[in-house]
Each structure stands twice: as C-alpha cells, then as structure tokens.
Amino acid sequence: MHPKPTYEELEQKVKELENEVTQLKLKEEQLSALINHSLIPTAIGGSNGSIISFNEALEELIGYRKSEISDVIDWSNKLYPDKEYRDFVSNNIQMALRGEKQDCTEFTITRKDGSIRTADFYTSFFKDGLIIQMVDITESKLMEDELKQSKDKFSKAFYSNAALMAISTLEKGRFLEVNDMFLKTLEFTRDEVIGKSSIELGLFTDIEERNAAIKKIIKKQGYVKSFEITTKTKSGVVLTGMFSADIISFGNKSHLLSVMHDITEHIKDEEEKKKLESQLRQAQKMESIGTLAGGIAHDFNNILSGIFGFAELAKDDTSEGSQTREYLDEVLKSAYRAKDLTKHILTFSRQNEQERKPIQIHVIIKEALKFLRASIPTTIEIHQNIDPRCGSVIADPTQIHQIIMNLCTNAYHAMRDLGGVLSVNLETVEIDSDFAANNTNLNEGRYVKLTVSDTGHGMDSVTLGRIFEPYFTTKEIGEGTGLGLAVVHGIVLGHGGAITVYGEPGKGTTFQVYFPRIITTAIPKSVKTELILRGREHILFVDDEVSLAEIGRKMLGRLGYKVTVFTSSIDALEAFREGPEEFDLVITDQTMPQMTGVKLARELMQIRQDIPVILTTGFSEIVTPEQAKKIGIRKFINKPIIFSDLGKTIRNVLDEKDKD
Q: Where does 352-516 sit in CATH, by number?
C-alpha cells in the first residue's frame, strides 16, 4: 500500500498540472495563430471527425464559415455533392484519422455559391486529430487546359522563344507558365516557379524598380514596352533585361504576358550602355509625343464636331446665294483643313505597325509633304514632282510616312541656316542587270523610285560611308540620336527595296529609295446612288459634350427623326432599360465619364440584342473599328462628325437592319 501523499506533495502536483495546462494553452494559441495567419487554406479536425477550426484563407476558398460546418461528414456533403466522389473524399479523411500516410490528392470542390474550384488536398494526422489543407490550383488547371487547346498555335512561339517569357495572373502576379529560356537563364525548375510571384522568388534586385514597372503596366492598361530592368538568378547573378508586357486573354480570363530579353552582355561596355539609354529616352519621347497627339486629337475633334454641326445648321437656315452662306462655306472649308491636319498629326505620331498591303505610295508622300510644309520655315522651298501613275507597292503606310518625314527632316537640318530647296520626286524606273549588279538588294525589273534632295552643306566621303550606321550622327548633342537613317535603312530593306545616297561638301545631298513595283488590276468604280437621308425612326443620341448633344438633337430632328438626347451614359442606359422597344437606333460617343460607349453598347445589347449601335470617337487607343465590329457595333465613326455623312450612315444602318 502506497503512503498517502502529503499536502505539500499534492500542492506541488497541482502546480505541475497547472503549468502543463498553461503550456498546452500556449501551444494551442500559437498553433491557432499560425493557422489563422497562414495563406494556405487550413482546417483542424478532431479525432472524432469534428471540425475544430478554420482559417480565413479556407473560408475564402470554400465560401463557408466555420459555424456553417459541423463535422467531416457535413464537410463532405457540402463540398462534394456527388455521392461517389464524396465517399472517396471521406475515405481519404478516415484513413488520415487512422494515422495512415496520405499523398497529395487533387479534388474538385463546390463552393457555397455553387462555383467549382480545383484544389490540391492534403491531410495529415497528429495525436488528437488531423490537419486538412487545400491549395487552390483552379487558375493553373484552367491555364493548363487552355494551353493544351492552343498548343499548336502557341507552344512553338512561347516555349522555344529565345527571350524569357512568362504568363502570370493579373491580381497577384503569380506565374502560371514560363518558357524554357526563363528557367534556363534564371536557374529555376518549373515546380519552383509555378504558383509563385517574382517577389517570392526574389527575382528583383531593386523592389522600387519592380514597383515602377508595375505602375507603368497599370498606367498603360497592361501594356509596357522596352522597360529596362535588373533581375537576378537563383544563384544571385545579376542580369539586365529589356522588359515588355501586355494583357492576353485565354477563354474568359485575362492574364499578363511578360517578355524579357537578356541584354546583360550588350551593356557591359559603359559607352554602349549610354547609347542604349539614349535610344530608350528617344523612344519614350516619341511615345510621349504619340500620347500627346492622341489627347489633342480627341479634344480637337470634339471641338471641330461643334464647328461643323453649328455651321451646317446655320447654313441650312440661310438663303441660297446670301453673303452669310458664303461666309459659312469658308468656315466649313477651314474646318475641313483642320480635320485633315489632325489626321496628319495622328499619322505622324502613330506607334503601331500596320499590316503591309498594296498602297498608292504617291498619296502617302503628298500627305507627308502637306504636314511638312506647315512645320518648316518658308526660307526652304519645297519642289515636288510626284507621278500619280507610278503604280503600287506592298508596304506599311505608316513606315512609308516615317521614311519621307525622316529624309525631309534631315534635308531641312542641312539648309536651316541659309535656306534652300528641298526636292521630292516620285517616278517609275526600270532596273537593268548592270544597275542590279552594283546594288545587291535589287533585282532586274520595275521599281518605284523616291528621290529626296537638298541644296544644303552636303557630306564628305567618310560621312557618306557611315551615314546608315546606328548612333552615327553629324548633329549637335541634343539634336538627334543617330538612329533615324539607320531605321530608314532597315525599313527599306525590310520592304525588299534599296536606298542610296550621293553628296559632296557644299553641293547638297540626294537620297534615292527603290521599292518593288507591283501590278494591280484596276477595279471599275461602281455607280453610287444618292441615299435618302430622311427618316421617322426614334434615335437615342448620347454624348457628354453638351454642345454636340444639342447639335445631334437639332440636326437629326431636321432630318425627320425623333431624337432622345442624353449627356450621361448612365441616364441613357436607364431610359433604354425602361423602354427598349421605343428606340430604333443608338448613336453614342466612346469617351465618357462613368461608362464608355463600348460598355454602354454591350449593356444595351444585353437588354435587346438586335438594337443597332453607331459608335463615335475623337480618338481612341482602346477600341478599333475591328474590335467594335466584333462587339456587335454596326458602324464606327471618327470625329469630327460631318452630319451630312452621319445622315447617310444612319440610313444605311437602319435599312440594313430592316433586311435582317
């Protein structure tokens, strides 16, 4: 028989038990804090199958709160409606409760709101129960499926690309897929990268630099080009890359496609690095000019729409042959000139390359010379001999415009101090075998030859020999990067042509550009019948510019239409929702506060699918005529609005609708 413990011994035992309880509570609190603050969706289950606790990450994943799920059976019933699938999950959980080792299993769960998510499911046993963890892999699975569907089109360009390429989520920047060059250059395995962000992988040496890139992407609505950035490999080697990114869509999801060219070796030499920085600054300057031109064009085209509209209304109210009518005709002539000038500015500042197609090159050159005449002093005469019958070439109109502007600008710089003559000629020439032999880029045949010459200071033989080298320039610091003629040379060669230069000191310079001429079959012009402009239909007209809204009301009203006008897209949507069958046509501006024209059009067509919509815009980089057509918009009109033309467009759209 054991001796009865003393009071002191009992008291000591109680203290020990209290200490153990305190330690257990502390461990429980630490475990609870660890789970609650974990980004991994986690639940703790008791040995009897009850659910003890959830963390917020799990609540967000499954849509249920802890109080809504009582035990493992309830868990299975709610998350796995299919009985066979539910039994499979329950069996895995029971095996974990028995302490049997469980591998990661992929499960499909049904959230409280009915949406389906895919997750990796982990269960592990401990003394008094089990830990259940889920990792949401829905995005990765969707991406995997979509990549499989588009493998033939996408995989070759993506996986074997010489640049580092990655696809990541827009929200948190987690990598969904990367190419082989990404893994090879940065020294990671695919498993180490997928599901992680660039910050988690420690790719950026300077977080502020990374944040600047993100801000640029957001500001450009997902698009950023030629952004220099430093990154580092898994082993810590620092690399310099030229980074570009754009938003791409797979199915109903948008993701970020990023591309980085490793330029580390190219900038080891400090002088080369300075040249690249200069090139980047010039590109950013041109990008700024393009952005500024777009903004000016948008506002100016709205102003011109008002001038055109009120002038046309006033002209309609004056009698034929009156002095006032003549004045109004002059106002309209000036407005048309302003319209053309805005078009030239946009052509000059346009950054994107267009598809090459057969073009009448003489039209592009004449437009460029009109713009040039307005921008250089009258001390320089412009002589032009442009043959309108010189034929067609396969070319990008924007790049042809770039060539003529660059050559003429260089000629201007050579004559700006003393003045002179700038001559521009365009003609058809026949290249024979002798000439082709001395110009390796040319073959025998017919070419369109562009000649740009000046009476400036000219160039010596050494300068002529280096004129097309990148970064070579005869201009003062701050006046040029030396990239212009190199770019021209590249464009000409890319079009299958050739460029030559002749000059002597004090005798000016002459550039000759050859483009292969193509044979086009003339298509006889169809006889146009005059459209009936008037109508009785009900038009919903939406423009946030009060003056343009008023012009729309008056002008369309004079054509016989019933017009309902709104300066708010939100108010217009509400009015349409109340009586969608009352309207026969909608005309809406694109750039408006609260809701754009494209967004309004989508909402209207959700309510009534067959409602025809005409979209107008002063200038927009967000939507193109092709994109508008895909949305279901019938016509896309660039401002300024000429209401006589708008009347024909309205009649065409309404008549086409009647044929549907």
A: 3.30.565.10
Closest CA to 385 of 369, 409, 407: 369
Q: DSSP assignment of 589-657, as one string?
A: ESS-SSS-HHHHHHHHHHH-TT--EEEEES--SS--HHHHHHHT-SEEEESSP-HHHHHHHHHHHHHHH
The most confident of the ranges 60-74, 95-109, 442-456 is 442-456
Entry field: residues in the chain: 660
| DSSP code per residue over 167-234 | EEETTT-BEEEE-HHHHHHHT--HHHHTT-BHHHHT-BS-HHHHHHHHHHHHHTTT-EEEEEEEEE-T
Residue 529 clears pLDDT 60, i.e. is over it: no
Residue 253 pLDDT > 80: no
Q: Where are the alpha helices (DSSP H) in 318-350?
A: 323-349
DSSP per residue over 57-111, as a string? Answer: HHHHHHS--GGG--BHHHHHHHH--SHHHHHHHHHHHHHHHTT-----EEEEEE-
* pLDDT on residue 567: 92
DSSP-assigned beta bridge partners for residue 168: 175, 256
User: Which residue would you say has higher pLDDT here, 171 or 564?
Assistant: 564
Query: Which positions ≥6 away from 55 have C-beta within 8 Å?
Result: 35, 36, 37, 38, 41, 42, 43
d(CA 554, CA 313): 8
Q: Which two tokens stand for residue 137?
A: 């892999």
From 178, 146, 176, 177, select the one nearest 163 (Cα to Cα): 178
Q: Is the dihedral of CA 441, 445, 447, 451 positive or negative?
A: positive
Domain extents for the chain? 1-32, 38-136, 141-268, 352-516, 538-659
Identical topology for domains 38-136 and 141-268: yes
Indicate the residue type of 436.
A
Residue 658's pLDDT band (cuts 50, 70, 90)? low
Separation between Cα atoms, residue 442 and residue 277, nearest integer Å: 35
Give the whole-angstrom CA distance, residue 567 versus residue 489: 50
Would you place residue 435 in the very low, low, confident or very high pLDDT band (cuts 50, 70, 90)?
A: confident
Assess whether pLDDT exceeds 50 at residue 353: no
Q: What percent of the chain has pLDDT above 90?
A: 13
Query: Among 613, 612, 542, 537, which residue's Cα sits nearest to residue 572?
Result: 542
Q: Is the pLDDT assigned to residue 470 strictly greater than 60?
A: no
User: Where does 417-490 show beta strands of DSSP type E?
Assistant: 420-431, 445-454
Phi, psi of 106 (to 5 degrees): -90, 125
Residue 258 burial (CB count, 10 A): 23
CATH number assigned to the domain covering 38-136: 3.30.450.20
| Per-residue pLDDT at 228 exceeds 90 | no
Task: Answer whether 387's CB lies under 8 Å from 429's CB.
Answer: no
Token pair of 618 as six digits: 């002063």
CATH number of 538-659: 3.40.50.2300
Please, which residues have CB within 8 angstroms of residue 398's CB and are 6 or more apart in sequence?
A: 347, 350, 352, 353, 354
Confidence of residue 63 (pLDDT cuts 50, 70, 90): confident
DSSP class of 347? H
104: which 2 tokens?
Answer: 């990661």
| Residue 343 pLDDT greater than 80, yes or no | no
Please state the CATH superfamily assignment of the domain spanning residues 141-268 in this structure: PAS domain (3.30.450.20)
Please answer whether residues 168 and 174 qualify as being in contact, where contact means their C-beta atoms are separated by less than 8 angstroms: yes
Could you report the per-residue pLDDT of 288-328, keeping only the tens digit for each? Answer: 656 666 666 667 777 777 788 788 888 878 888 788 888 88
- Give the CA distances from residue 34 to residues 31, 45, 66, 269, in Å, rounded to whole numbers and listed in that order: 5, 16, 17, 50
